[in-house]
């Protein structure tokens, strides 16, 4: 006697052979597709690895305070070294100067930009410091505007003539021509 599961399988094969064939074909296609994806992954990984090795990646880095072509040639002539290349790197440190502030507008409309010129005196107020008003001078105005949600806006740079200890980077400011 067959188990109930196998009885159902044989009954489905006898009474609905087309449906059973479609299920078998669907499973076969799925297994084939899965195998194709795995085979593609294996081939891609192998080719990427071969391409990377083909670029002859650097396997060592020497850091020194200074070098000349003689050092590069000496390293290149070592028997274990296939090729050597010298590069200069420059380290830079950016220091904040909190005594000279510059305000850059993000929303100077095309209606307002025509009333502003380089060298104009302006007043700058800050949302976080409503009692503070600082004088400034327009240093630059971009000649080309950008489209921001359908409005054409321009960028202007204002140099503040004075500073305040309460100012912080990225504070929201309003620039007004008196």
Structural write-up:
Helix 1 packs across helix 2. The chain has four helices and eight strands, in the order H-H-H-E-E-H-E-E-E-E-E-E. Strands 1-7-4-3-8 form a five-stranded antiparallel sheet, with no helix packed on it. The chain has a three-stranded antiparallel sheet with strand order 2-6-5. Helices cover 35% and strands 22% of the residues. The termini are far apart. It has two domains: 51 residues; 75 residues, Elongation Factor Tu (Ef-tu), domain 3 (Beta Barrel). The protein has 178 residues and is of the alpha+beta class.
Under CATH, the topology of the largest domain can be stated as: Elongation Factor Tu (Ef-tu), domain 3
So what's the CATH class of the largest domain?
A: Mainly Beta
User: What is the arithmetic mean of pLDDT?
Assistant: 86
* Fourth-level CATH superfamily of the largest domain: Efflux pump adaptor protein, beta barrel domain
- Rg from Cα: 35 Å
Taking pLDDT < 50 over at least 5 consecutive residues as the criterion, the unreliable ranges are none
Give the CA-CA distance, first to last residue. 100 Å
SS strand fraction? 15-25%
Structure described in brief:
With 178 residues, the protein is of the alpha+beta class. Helices cover 35% and strands 22% of the residues.
Structural key phrases:
single chain, 178 residues, alpha+beta, Elongation Factor Tu (Ef-tu), domain 3, 2 domains, three-stranded antiparallel beta sheet, 4 helices, 8 strands
Task: Write the SSE topology.
Elements: H1 4-15, H2 17-54, H3 69-76, E1 102-104, E2 108-109, H4 110-113, E3 121-126, E4 129-141, E5 146-148, E6 151-154, E7 156-160, E8 173-176
Antiparallel strand pairs: 1-7, 2-6, 3-4, 3-8, 4-7, 5-6
């Amino acid at each position: 006697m067959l188990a109930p599961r196998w009885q159902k399988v044989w009954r489905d094969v006898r009474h609905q052979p087309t449906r059973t064939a479609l299920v078998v074909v669907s499973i076969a296609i799925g297994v084939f597709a899965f195998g194709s994806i795995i085979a593609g992954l294996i081939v891609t990984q192998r080719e990427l690895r071969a391409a990377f090795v083909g670029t002859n990646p650097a396997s060592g880095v020497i850091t020194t305070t200074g070098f000349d072509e003689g050092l590069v040639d000496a390293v290149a002539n070592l028997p274990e070294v296939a090729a050597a290349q010298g590069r200069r790197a420059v380290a830079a440190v950016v220091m904040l100067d909190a005594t000279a502030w510059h305000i850059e507008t993000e929303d100077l409309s095309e209606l307002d930009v025509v009333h502003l010129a380089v060298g104009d005196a302006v007043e700058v107020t800050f949302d976080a410091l409503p009692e503070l008003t600082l004088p400034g001078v327009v240093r630059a105005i971009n000649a080309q505007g950008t489209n921001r949600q359908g409005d054409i806006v321009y960028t202007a740079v204002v140099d503040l003539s004075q500073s305040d200890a309460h100012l912080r980077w990225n504070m929201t400011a309003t620039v007004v021509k008196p």
